[in-house]
Write a structure and sequence with these properties.
The chain is of the alpha+beta class and about 325 residues long. The protein is about 35% helix and about 20% strand.
Length: about 325
């Protein structure tokens, strides 16, 4: 009996602290379960899944604290699940081995223009500094097209397939090489133009300017899910494909993971920058996440990737270089 009383005294905080830790553990296990079981669900679940890297870190901390406070069952369970979650997230911080590839080097950049308000001079300066070959733009308005022209974009990237619209629906592709417009996606709420890029080597590429509906709108994530599902898979019998833009999805969402399972690689993940956030730029709330991506046909080895702050928009631009191999 005395030993039992001593053990009870050693359990710091007693029942109230145990109840609080159990509540935190339950919240963590629900969030982790959404990711590990592949449940996007409603808009709140989608938002929770977007925070998976934070959830993994919080789970490790919570599990360790629970064990230190001698809540063995809760601590052990939380820590084990957290380790599984970390194993799913941590590889994004480490570069993958680069396969050999000889061919044409291509640099692709993507910018969400935030209703056309992004600083056109910043965009053009980034294109020039990074020697961009192909640029995809989201939330491209007619006024933004005029601003980009005045800033000199057409002089550097003269071939353009633009579908500007007022508000967030417009998108476009600009290239230093010739473009031929192609319909590569299913119809959606946003414009998502596609194009065949006439590269100087013996192999061309197809590019889609991706912009799916945000999944956290009050209408729910159904449109977002349909639009992610409507993005084209890799075409082994055709030109290598590149999907670049604002997916409104992280690497933890089912729709994006499905694309990666169909022959694409995420450029950021390939070089160990998969945890580099792209939205919201320069803010700590909501917690920054990675929703802008360049998905590259896995036949094309990825060399570099980076994010760039652009004035006037809440998205950071993403830029990557990869090699389109010869036939």
């Amino acid at each position: 009996m005395a030993d039992t009383e001593v053990a009870r005294r050693r359990r710091v905080g007693g029942g109230p602290l145990s109840a609080f830790l159990v509540l935190l553990a339950a919240a963590f296990l629900v969030a982790a379960g959404l990711r590990l079981l592949g449940i996007d669900g409603n808009r709140y679940m989608v938002a929770v899944t977007a925070l998976t890297p934070y959830t993994a870190a919080a789970g490790v901390l919570l599990g360790c604290v629970a064990l230190l406070l001698r809540r063995w069952a809760a601590g052990t369970l939380v820590l084990l699940v957290a380790i599984v979650l970390v194993a799913a997230v941590a590889p994004r911080a480490f570069p993958d081995s680069r396969p050999n590839g000889v061919g044409t080097e291509v640099r692709v950049m993507s910018v969400n223009m935030l209703l056309g308000q992004a600083d056109a001079a910043d965009v053009v300066a980034a294109v020039r500094a990074n020697q961009v070959d192909v640029l995809t733009l989201q939330e491209l308005t007619p006024e933004a097209v005029a601003e980009l022209d005045r800033a000199g974009l057409r002089n550097m990237l003269p071939s353009q397939v633009f579908e500007p619209r007022p508000g967030p629906a417009g998108s476009g592709i600009a290239s230093r090489y010739g473009l031929t417009a192609k319909t590569l996606t299913s119809p959606g709420s946003m414009r998502q133009p596609g194009a065949l890029v006439d590269l100087p080597g013996d192999r061309d590429i197809e590019v889609v300017a991706v912009h799916t509906m945000p999944p956290v709108l009050t209408a729910g994530p159904e449109a977002w899910q349909r639009e992610l599902a409507g993005l084209p898979n890799r075409d082994l019998g055709g030109a290598p494909r590149v999907l670049a833009g604002d997916f409104n999805a992280t690497l933890d969402h089912v729709g994006l993971r499905r694309l990666l399972g169909n022959g694409y690689v995420d450029a950021a993940d390939e070089v160990g920058a998969g945890l580099e956030p792209t939205w919201p730029s320069g803010k700590l709330w909501p917690p920054p996440v990675t929703i802008d991506h360049v998905l590259v046909d896995n036949r094309c080895p990825v060399d570099t990737y980076g994010v760039i702050a652009i004035g006037g928009t809440d998205h950071r631009a993403v830029v990557t270089q990869f090699v389109v191999p010869t036939r």
